[in-house]
Structure to design on (339 residues):
């Protein structure tokens, strides 16, 4: 017996598509200096954001983004049924401690850099299923906290290889409701964990690209659609290396996406001028680009329908030190500006 709101094996179709009522984005100085700087709600002056540590700065960015999106919707924290949030730090401490101060029923998520899209898909289920009226999905990341946890403290000045990506310092929040005038979530294609044996933690684009392609292909197969049905197909943070691989893999599956395939990790920085090597990454990468740049295009009418695929490298310091490979995940969400 098939579930009535599922299409194929991997895709959900919302019967009552949830509305993106408001979004909020906060980024660090480097992100503010990039090509999309004017699309963000707030650019902080320094990476400490008035706090004593980078970890506390990340928590503050996340908390402020959540407060901002609630205020934009002219609501109060007590009006929010659920907060779905996550980050990259062990035990998702940024999300946990932000939730501690907000008093909203909280579900902590971890999908690495795919967490925003995982959260959007789940929030859509809560709203479409009649379990919630207002849900906030929020994520954060910070270059210095991520480097300290996953690689080397930035104070060491370790040379980064060309395949390395720059973790975006920022936070974003999206508020969803059953009714409103904004773009809507119409479908979600939940990804599988795909592991092609990549073991280099400084080459996450190569590790994540096969998972992104797997989700995109399964979305097309489940829905009967193809690239021409979308104004934009955009991945979370494959960067230049992963984007090139994903394009080739999609061509091998007879999907020509060359004219409309992009990546948030490529868009957010001027890689030559800013020295970000292969591009951006981190939970905040796809999230702040969605909350700022992409929502602007959707609300302005330039895009009518986009397929966003949040991508995540599911590694940890423990798995890397034990010689494990880097599994990848990709979760897709269709966002449409319906008439």
């Amino acid at each position: 017996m098939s579930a009535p709101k599922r299409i194929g094996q991997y895709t959900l179709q919302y019967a009552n598509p949830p509305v993106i009522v408001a979004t909020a984005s906060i980024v660090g100085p480097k992100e503010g200096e990039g090509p999309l700087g004017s699309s963000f709600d707030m650019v902080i002056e320094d990476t400490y954001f008035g706090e004593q540590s980078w970890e506390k700065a990340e928590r503050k960015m996340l908390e402020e983004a959540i407060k901002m999106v609630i205020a934009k919707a002219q609501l109060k924290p007590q009006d929010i049924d659920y907060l779905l949030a996550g980050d990259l730090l062990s035990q998702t401490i940024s999300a946990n401690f932000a939730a501690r101060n907000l008093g909203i029923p909280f579900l902590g998520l971890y999908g690495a850099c795919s967490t925003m899209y995982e959260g959007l898909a789940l929030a859509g289920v809560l709203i479409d299923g009649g379990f919630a009226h207002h849900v906030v999905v929020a994520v954060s990341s910070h270059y210095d906290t991520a480097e300290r946890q996953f690689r080397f403290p930035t104070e060491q000045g370790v040379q980064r290889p060309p395949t390395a990506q720059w973790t975006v310092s920022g936070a974003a929040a999206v508020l969803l409701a059953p009714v409103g005038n904004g773009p809507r979530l119409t479908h979600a294609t939940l990804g599988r964990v795909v592991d092609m044996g990549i073991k280099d933690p400084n080459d996450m684009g190569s590790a994540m690209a096969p998972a992104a392609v797997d989700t995109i292909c399964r979305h097309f197969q489940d829905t009967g659609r193809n690239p021409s049905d979308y104004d934009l197909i955009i991945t979370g943070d494959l960067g230049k290396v992963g984007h090139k691989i994903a394009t080739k893999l999609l061509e091998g599956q007879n999907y020509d996406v060359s004219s409309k395939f992009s990546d948030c990790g490529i868009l957010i920085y001027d890689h030559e001028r800013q020295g970000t090597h292969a591009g951006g990454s981190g939970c905040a990468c796809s999230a702040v680009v969605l909350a700022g740049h992409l929502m602007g295009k959707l609300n302005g009418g330039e895009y009518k329908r986009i397929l966003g695929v949040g991508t995540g490298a599911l590694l940890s310091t423990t798995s890397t030190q034990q010689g494990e490979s880097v599994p990848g995940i990709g979760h897709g969400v269709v966002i449409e500006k319906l008439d």
Q: What stands out?
A: The chain has a mean pLDDT of 94. The radius of gyration is 18 Å.
